[in-house]
Amino acid sequence: MNLSNFLTLIRIAVIPIIVFCIYLKNPYFGWIAFVLFCLASITDYFDGYIARLRNEVTNFGTFLDPIADKLLVAAVILILTSKGVISDWDTVPALIILLREITVSGLREYLAGIKVSIPVSTIAKSKTLFQLSALALLILSESSIDMTPILYLGKIFLWVAAVLTLYTAYDYVKGSVKHF
To answer: What percent of the chain has pLDDT over 90?
Structure first.
């Protein structure tokens, strides 16, 4: 156990609290969910950075980090959809994001089995930034003060994230096909 793995475990542990706070649809809990989600999102960057900086990259961390990311994103998308924050046509980008995460997870598992690694691209990092920003803004819209512009900006970011998601999924599949 090292600091990087601890941050990843904290990110997973905070997911039920974020979901519960969003579920309550109370301005106070909306702000708590927003802050916790932002902190969890920041640990996504820092756990890997710290592991590389301190030369503490572990198999456990390499395995758990992408799972923590996907659990956080999927849980928030699903609760926001159930609360109607993501609805109608906005479920399309949410579905694109979820389906890409499942597809890429399967590809990573297959590629790991044959000892192949595909590095994360700059576009994939941008995708993650838009995705996490969109979800943070959509969570913030649950804080109940007049957040209509925040809600619309969150939905715009969600669509941008979906376009980047499609591109990165294509890129990942293209890089994987030669290994089948």
So the answer is: 56
Indicate whether 38 pLDDT > 90: yes
Q: What are the DSSP calls for 22-58, one per residue?
A: HHHT-HHHHHHHHHHHHHHHHHHHHHHHHHHHTT---
CATH number at residue 85: 1.20.120.1760
pTM of this prediction? 0.91
Q: Quick check: 68 and 5 in contact, CB under 8 A?
A: no
Highest-pLDDT range among 18-27, 138-147, 154-163: 154-163
- In three-state secondary structure terms, 155 is helix
User: How many domains, in total, are found in the chain?
Assistant: 1
